[in-house]
Amino acid sequence: MFVSTPYEYFSYSPVGDILVLAIIMIFAVLIKTAQIRTSQDLRVFTLILAILSVASCAHIIFHQLLYNINRNTLLLIYFLYFAYHFLLFFDIALYLLYIERITWLSSGRNRSIFKRALVGVVIFSALEMVTTISKVGFYITEDYQVIQGINVTSIEYVLYVGVVVISIIGYKDRVYKPIIMGFIFTIGISLVVMYIQEIHRQMSFTTATFLFPAFSVLYYLHSNSFNPETGVLPLESFEKTFETFTKGKEGVLILSLFLHEFEDPGKKYTKGFRDFIRMYANNFFKGSTAFQISNGRFMLIADMEKNQDYKKATDKILEVFRGQYSVYKHDFKIVITRSYESFTEPEMYIKLIKYAEGMMQENEIKYIDDEFFEGFNKYVYVLKQLADIDEKKNPEDERVLVFCQPVYNLRNGRFDTAEALMRLQLDETGMVFPNEFIPIAEESNYINTLSLIILSKTCKAVRKFLDEGYDVQRVSVNFSMLDLKSEQFSNNVKRIISDSRTPFDKIAMEIKEIQNEKDFLIVKERMNELKESGIMFYLDDFGTGYSSFERIMELPFDIIKFDRSTVIASRNSTRSQTMLSSMAQMFKNMNYSALFEGIEDDHDEELCSNMNAGYLQGFKYSKPIPIEDLTEYFAKA
């Protein structure tokens, strides 16, 4: 048989509720000043805090009125008592709504969790009133004695904890594991506080126990920026987490997933694919943390010691991805690497992965081995050297070398022209060839500095040749479309040639075929600006691009360079010979000269000579040599 207890037996101090109000005020300031992105989830969270604030105020006023009960305050006391517990019950329902939202329980059956919680609020509120009316719960006697009978709040609290824990664990695949642990831990603390409070007949910290889970909500889902849709952290968390993760660990596994079609920030993931990403972040590796580096790139880090069978796990990922691809047709690239002692900066691993992706096909997986890593190390070193060259912009930079390939003039039977070619001479790698560093320079926007350095050194060398009495018709320098796009390009070229005291007609510029209208207009403008000064122009690699004859005719070229591939094609095809010969003759009739590249032997020389060539260039005459050695080919005037 239940025995009622005098309410005075329960101790209460407003300190607990005042602390709740103070913490909620701090939450409000943090949310405001941290400029947390407004969302419906955040609105639910702020409603939870607002209700707890009202509940705390109601609790404080309720206990203040108990000190002086009279006929006038009796109804207000009952109202505050019921309002306080109703607000706590409703707060429970909102927590369950929050859990429902972050786990995307969209089906009708699952949505009933919140609806059932609302029904529970009504039932427990009604039960509270029934126990009061029947005098088996909280009530006030006729002589104004306060009695506490059955504590419906404690029963409801236990049920709340059970529903929340079951909901979280039951849908663990839909919630990122740290969030699960955070909620369960704070709920556990709440239970401990409630238990201690009960055994000590204390009532001061009831409201506070409902506030504890809000700490997990604010940190994990708002201030810490976990994306509950995919279970990942944003880019800004990657660096700090990576550094923490690598401390004291022998090796860290890094796995990258790239979906290029989602790189556009406006591209949205389907729900099914979001669920898969969350599974990728949670279920394949032990103790892993996942990040969204960009809209289409996800990275995961895990302890290698705990994931020694990572290849097996990645095989499972690949198998699942192929299944996803058959449904959604989202192309992917997966790169897996371990950490290296020489790389301590997280962004270097992002660069390593992008470097590997550049060599991969779609829907491919790549494991980074030591040999590949060494190649990337060279890439990084070259990139740093290029960055330093670009920063210093020293026209005499000793790391940038000018090599030249002499060109044979069929008209006079002499070598009087040449093509300038870039090389890098670096301390750690020695000679670096254009196919290794030009793509890096263009990708990093360092090519313009290199081109101007080469132009400067070429002009000075040509000036020296002329001063020493050599017959130099011209030396050509290659320029890319990126060079020509610079607004200062024409002025820089004119300045460099003028400063070297080199005649403008002794310098030529080689430009590749132009493929789009915008670039064509830029090239046309730059060429017209420079043509007036006397600079000559070569159309490089003719026969490999897509420029029309109409476009070529619009530009003031002087020499058309036929690519080596056209020479190879003409070796065994009379049709190719006839076509190339006709083209060269046509250009000759229009005051262009034809230069054939890739001449390797006497047969090539005779073949191209018979196809109306004006100039020949290739290994038959010379491999690329330092520009100073051109004196071995140029004759004195």
Question: Which characteristics define this entry?
Answer:
8-stranded mixed beta barrel; 53% helix; alpha/beta; 637 residues; elongated
* Counted beta strands: 19
Poorly predicted sequence stretches spanning 5 or more consecutive residues: 105-110
For the largest sheet, list the strands in their spatial order: 10-11-13-14-15-16-17-18
Give the rounded overall mean pLDDT: 83
Q: Specify the helix fraction band.
A: 40-55%
Distance between the termini: 125 Å
- Overall SS class: alpha/beta
Question: Can you tell me about this structure?
Answer:
With 637 residues, the protein is of the alpha/beta class. 53% of the residues lie in helices and 15% in strands. The chain is built from 21 helices and 19 strands. The protein has helices at 15-33, 40-66, 74-102, 108-133, 152-170, 177-199, 206-223, 235-246, 271-283, 310-328, 346-357, 370-392, 434-443, 447-467, 481-484, 489-499, 517-531, 549-554, 564-571, 574-589, 602-609, and strands at 5-6, 139-140, 146-148, 233-234, 252-258, 289-294, 297-303, 333-338, 364-367, 400-409, 414-426, 430-432, 474-478, 507-512, 536-542, 559-562, 593-596, 615-616, 625-626. The strands form three sheets. An eight-stranded mixed β-barrel has the order 10-11-13-14-15-16-17-18, surrounded by four helices. Strands 4-6-7-5-8-9 form a six-stranded mixed beta sheet, covered by helices on one side. Helix 2 packs antiparallel against helix 3.
